[in-house]
């Protein structure tokens, strides 16, 4: 698959730019791969890198400051680890206690940047958009920085390739004097119907709304104060009351909850007279549905896009992905087939947007597959359920070198741990026990215990739980290095 990870590191921008990465949303139209516990931005969907890694690498190196990342509390360790994997260091990770849409998130980032430099230029990007022509970013960003330093708010309008009904549009206005290639914004248009999209595409005046913005912290905050002072006040209090936790900044929950919930488009972009658009061709597309991934990925001679262990026969114009088991597809066309470890999606490409309705139904019936994967990631590693039955459950637990679980106890279950790889150091009440490969330890109900990997390789063990209630909420944490409650 093509990669959009070509960096701008060797192309020094005139002034350092502060990347702002917004990582919100659950990507429900990309279920069953994307779920709220591990959404689409953390998956490799267009290259060997995840979407958030693609976004971070796009704005990494000379000419760029360390990024500001805004994400929710549940994803904090996943975010930090994925940035570390690709060498993006020094990121300031702001944790939202709850989602309040993009305007409050961007205000928080602007306030943080303004603490160091009120005139810092911010490049705001969603964590889940692909750019298949990254070589075209530099000239457009260079121009956007100059326009932003002149006190304007800039967005990139993507050159449309078809009459797309799934994107918003921007109509170009008059050219901006002194800045060749930049234009005033005549109007924003919400996602149009097919007839309106066709008319806008044919006119040549309309661009796809990429949702990216470039501005100085000072300009953005001044315009937000003008149009949405309640957001600035609430987020300002949340920033003032924030607390640092390891490598994260936790916004004050009570203050942040008081902020109005509104997008940056409605809050400022559609109301300010400073709005500027720069037409560009970044090979941009919103990774918002399985059909979008079919459309923008290379296809075989039958028009198929295939990922994973797939066998096809007499199949055309389809997207088939499996993250595990062999998947065979025969005698069909125009289908989306996605196979996960605990769920399978099959739908016609014309109904790709309806996947979110499936997720809504799963949530209504309280199916855990709606929000969580079988594998659950934690700051110390991950666990996955292997077998569940009446009064027992078997899990595989992997603990990374040097990491340890919380000191905890349970009221409803006992546990038996069998080490299959590595060495475990186990606290059980007053004992500290070293458990090696092919050895086991029993933790009776109510025992205070902790698991730690003191070695240099991942620790893998099989956990057998037994008891009348085996929910994850039967954990009483007495001490935790990751500051979890």
Describe the structure.
The protein is of the alpha/beta class and 485 residues long. It has three domains: 17-286, Spore Coat Polysaccharide Biosynthesis Protein SpsA, Chain A (Alpha-Beta Complex), CATH 3.90.550.10; 299-363, no CATH class; 375-479, Jelly Rolls, CATH 2.60.120. The protein has eleven helices and 30 strands. The strands form seven sheets. It has a six-stranded antiparallel beta sheet with strand order 20-21-22-29-24-27, with no helix packed on it. It has a five-stranded mixed β-barrel with strand order 6-9-7-8-12. The longest helix is centred in the first third of the chain and has 15 residues, at 102-116. It is globular. The protein starts with 16 loop residues before the first strand and ends in a 6-residue tail after the last strand. The model is unreliable at 1-13 (pLDDT under 50).
How would you describe this structure in keywords?
globular, 22% helix, mannose-1-phosphate guanylyltransferase (GTP) activity, six-stranded antiparallel beta sheet, alpha/beta, ManC/GMP-like_b-helix, 3 domains, single chain, Spore Coat Polysaccharide Biosynthesis Protein SpsA, Chain A, 485 residues, EC 2.7.7.13, Nucleotide-diphossugar_trans, five-stranded mixed beta barrel, 11 helices, transferase
